[in-house]
Specification:
Blueprint: H1 2-15, H2 18-21, H3 24-28, E1 42-48, H4 62-69, E2 73-75, E3 78-79, H5 85-94, H6 98-101, H7 113-118, H8 126-132, E4 136-141, E5 162-166, E6 176-181, E7 187-190, H9 194-211, E8 216-221, E9 228-231, E10 243-246, H10 288-322, E11 328-334, H11 354-357, E12 361-364, E13 372-374, E14 378-379, H12 383-390, H13 408-414, E15 421-426, E16 430-431, E17 440-441, E18 446-453, E19 456-463, E20 468-472, H14 486-491, E21 494-495, E22 498-499, H15 500-514, H16 520-523, H17 525-529, H18 538-541, H19 547-553
Parallel strand pairs: 1-8, 1-11, 2-13, 3-14, 4-5, 4-8
Antiparallel strand pairs: 2-12, 5-6, 6-7, 9-10, 11-12, 15-18, 16-17, 18-19, 19-20, 21-22
């Protein structure tokens, strides 16, 4: 009913665009719609900002459903590895976890575009590699935080055939954006709706890409459904800087939609008892005024996504007009997820809970299964390797991720052997993005694992204050019952049918490897612990013959102190050399 209702509202407006798109080939002088594209496929990547899975935003996007969900494959267990914009986007473009990029924040000194440049990645990331492999590369929308009207050309982002980037301090201002086209000065689009501006620029790049004799990779990165932010300076350390957070802004044509929608009232929405760990346990329950505003913010998120929904529809119709849809892969994802009220949290991200790390990933293209959903575990570290694989580019050994299978047969084969875990990590603080309680919560630094396999569905984390969390997601999908909190340890003796001590010892050893892994060590962490190859999953590791190995021999994850960035001195014991097992670490009883 919802899809039909929203589709009907858009039908007349979207239908009016058809006349504009029909003569594109004629306008460009293309006699053959497949001219110059040979057999190498193209990729269009639509990357939204802060889009959720668990607040049901995809249910309100009928055109994404029509073109992507119904005609492609949905990866329901796709995760970002750092739940905030800049570190997550750097991971997307490098195939490396944040502890290997050392870009762990949205602002300097630990993150942002300046840190990306200082770390040497401006010449060592996806668009550069694609160009080296014969691809034209185009990008419009948000690239990184602190990519500003002052530093956009010092240096300019490398690797793009053409680009038109959103720039701070106007990136998140829906009605007062500033863009910078490659080789030109920044241009203000005050009064124009940001997503619509991105849309028109994307179409221009698609036109240019089709005229070229090379295959192409086009990224379209609107800011929706991120909150609207007013900033009076792009210098985050300016003592007079003003940040004003408010709900996302919709296009005027969508302002009347979803008047009765509210944040889904899941069990973890503003619960009567505090949940989680560390600073979350001190959060007050939200009052009615606070919840009413959060419902308004939720509706504005849905409304802001309607222009993205239209963008997707028009991209598909252009690809069809050009006759290249059947040789183009279309990816749809978001940099991180989002929470609104879960665990009593104000709107935002930055936590390791499912709302923040489980993000959309939909793929459509040649050979991709239609109207298919898979629960194989994938992450943002896997996207660069996947692009390489689909485009016929040899894999890089320093990728931390693995290729995502996209055909039905490959997905089925992967179920038996694919990595079953995601390494999740964060440094610094978390803050609310609405009108209520803008406190910056310090010591929001943690390492975690999300692991899913036969008979287990778990989340395990260690915070920088050395608090531990474990959730059995089959029995507690809302993550309300921390099995490692002091009261629970006495009450719960088993998880996944096994003694909790036995399970956590394995998870901690795996996390110990992953928290400082590189390349193959990230991709094959169990094999690093077991070089003989007899352990490939948690199920294998739980065999009784490994009890002493895990419960006695292994070093434990433990922070020395809380840091706002990736400082080795703060990280505690590290996996110093591949294949070397520490023998004198903390035992289980010392931290439970």
């Amino acid at each position: 009913m919802l899809y039909a209702f929203v589709a009907a509202l858009f039908a007349s407006a979207i239908g009016s665009l058809r006349g504009f798109e029909t003569p594109i080939q004629e306008l460009l002088g293309l006699k053959n719609p497949e001219q110059g594209h040979g057999r190498r496929p193209n990729i269009v990547f639509v990357l939204t900002d802060d889009q959720d899975v668990h607040l049901s935003s995809l249910d309100y996007m009928p055109l994404v459903k029509k073109h992507l969900l119904d005609q492609g494959t949905y990866f329901s267990k796709h995760y970002c590895t750092t739940a905030v914009c800049c570190p997550s986007r750097v991971t997307l473009w490098t195939g490396k976890a944040a502890h290997n990029t050392n870009i762990t924040d949205v602002n300097p000194p630990y993150g942002g575009y300046p840190k990306f440049v200082v770390q040497g990645f401006n010449g060592k990331y996806l668009p550069v590699w694609l160009q080296d492999s014969g691809y034209n590369t185009y990008y419009t929308g948000k690239l990184f935080n602190v990519h500003t009207v002052e530093n956009y050309n010092s240096p300019a982002p490398a690797g793009f055939t053409d680009s038109d980037f959103l720039l701070d301090p106007f990136t998140y201002n829906y009605l007062n954006s500033t863009f910078q086209r490659k080789g030109e000065a920044p241009r203000s689009y005050e009064g124009h709706y940001s997503t619509d501006v991105v849309t028109e620029k994307a179409y221009g790049f698609l036109d240019d890409a089709v005229k070229s004799e090379k295959p192409f990779f086009l990224t379209v990165a609107p800011i929706a459904p991120h909150v609207n932010i007013y900033m009076n300076s792009s210098d985050v350390h300016d003592p007079n800087i003003v940040f004003k957070f408010d709900a996302p802004v919709s296009a005027q044509r969508h302002q009347h939609l979803f008047e009765d929608e509210k944040v889904p009232r899941t069990k973890n929405f503003n619960p009567d008892q505090p949940s989680g760990a560390n600073w979350l346990l001190k959060l007050p329950q939200q009052n009615t005024t606070n919840m009413d505003y959060n419902d308004h913010l939720y509706r504005q998120r849905l409304r802001s996504l309607q222009a993205v929904d239209e963008l997707v529809d028009r991209i598909f119709r252009r690809l069809e007009t050009y006759g290249i849809l059947d040789k183009t892969y279309i990816f749809y994802s978001s940099d991180n997820g989002y929470h609104i009220g879960q665990h009593r949290l104000q709107p935002g991200k930055s936590c390791g809970y499912e709302e923040d790390i489980n993000v959309p990933l939909i793929v459509r293209g040649p050979g991709v299964a239609k109207n298919y959903t898979t629960s194989i575990v994938t992450s943002h570290t896997d996207l660069a390797p996947t692009f390489f694989d689909l485009l016929g580019i040899p894999q890089r050994e320093d990728f931390d991720g693995s290729t995502i299978p996209v055909t039905n047969a490959a997905i089925e084969a992967a179920k038996a052997k694919r990595r079953e875990h995601v390494n999740v990590e964060y440094w610094g603080f978390a803050g609310g993005e609405g009108k209520f309680d803008g406190t910056l919560h310090e010591h929001n630094t943690y390492k975690a694992i999300r692991i899913i396999g036969p008979g287990y569905n778990l989340y395990y984390s260690v915070w920088c204050n050395n608090e531990h969390e474990l959730y059995n997601m089959d029995l507690d999908p809302d993550q309300l019952k921390n099995l490692l909190s002091r009261p629970q340890v006495a009450e719960v003796s088993n998880v996944a049918g096994l003694p909790i001590r036995k399970v956590v010892a394995r998870l901690d050893a795996l996390l110990f490897v992953l928290k400082s892994c590189k390349g193959r060590t990230c991709r094959e962490a169990w094999q690093i612990l077991h070089p003989d190859g007899d352990v490939l999953t948690l199920e294998d590791a739980l065999e009784p013959r490994f009890d002493h190995f895990y419960e006695v021999d292994q070093k434990r994850v433990k922070y020395n102190f809380c840091s706002n960035g990736y400082l080795v001195d703060a990280e505690g014991p590290m996996w110093e050399k591949e294949g070397v097992i520490f023998r004198d670490g903390l035992m289980w009883h010392e931290w439970v």
